[in-house]
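Q: Could you fold this chain for me?
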Amino acid sequence: MAPVAGIWLGLWPAVLLGVLVAALGYLLLERAAGRETLRRSRQSGLAGSLALVRSDDEAADVLRRHLEHALAGSEVTVLAAEGEACLARRAGRAYETKAGAPPVACPVCAGGDAARTCVPVIARGKAVGSVLVRHTAPLAPEGLEELRASVVVAAPAFARLPDIAPAAHGKAPDDDVVRETLRRMVAQSSRTLKPLSVVVFALSTPREEGVLAAVETAVTSAVRESDAAGRYDGDDFVLMLPATDTDGALLVIDKVRSALARLPMAGAPLTASFGLAVVPDDALEAGEVLRSAEAALLRARAEGRDTVEASELLVEAPLTQTRAPSGS
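A: Sure. Below is the predicted structure, expressed as structure tokens.
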């Protein structure tokens, strides 16, 4: 027994150290999970606020206040239409400058000794604005992630403003067709007392026109003849599904996900974020249900790629593999 006891006494410090390391690892994981939960909550709140804006100025103010709260001690400037001279916007990529370093050759960033981080706002495949953050110390990794995620969430809000102010921005040629089709389908839903589901979705990453056209073709082939599908507001897509409730719409969305994943693309399969609203559950008029679906899309993008947001019900079902077409 004495040799066995001696062995245990010799191993005890190593066992104790292992327990302490495991406990520390658990605490670190818990802390990281808490930060991620807080970040996702902030992004969801930002998306909800941006869904209500009516102009570039309002969107810029919402984003500025959000970032100055999240990045304590920072001064944030959001440039939209007036920021064409911004180097990050012209180059389409972010710039970082340390405190006291000579500024990059940009008239917007020039002046002051603070550290600067400037990130372009990308919508519809091009830079439509930029966000400049001045801070006394370099941004921590989580701060930089908060900045980048907030800009991604805000981009669709800037992109959808052309429909609200057509005189200032112009309007996509198919949008009137979408609205007229939706008005007819809402009227039909009211007459037949059957639900109408409206889905607005956007690809997780910006894509060129050829890819968007392929997506439109794939989506059209994935829905019923009675459904309507097409491009909307530039790079977004809309589905109008008559006689379809929330559960039925989620099945259609799953088919669309599969259709996107089957498209022959270099690299990872295509994914998208989806916003869903239903007549009469969420709205009774065409404009209201479309706005509800757009707001849900903003919340879905805040939650992460390949996510569906529907009437306060968050459904996450990422595709882990590409499903082969039936019969293949």
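A (continued): The radius of gyration is 24 Å.
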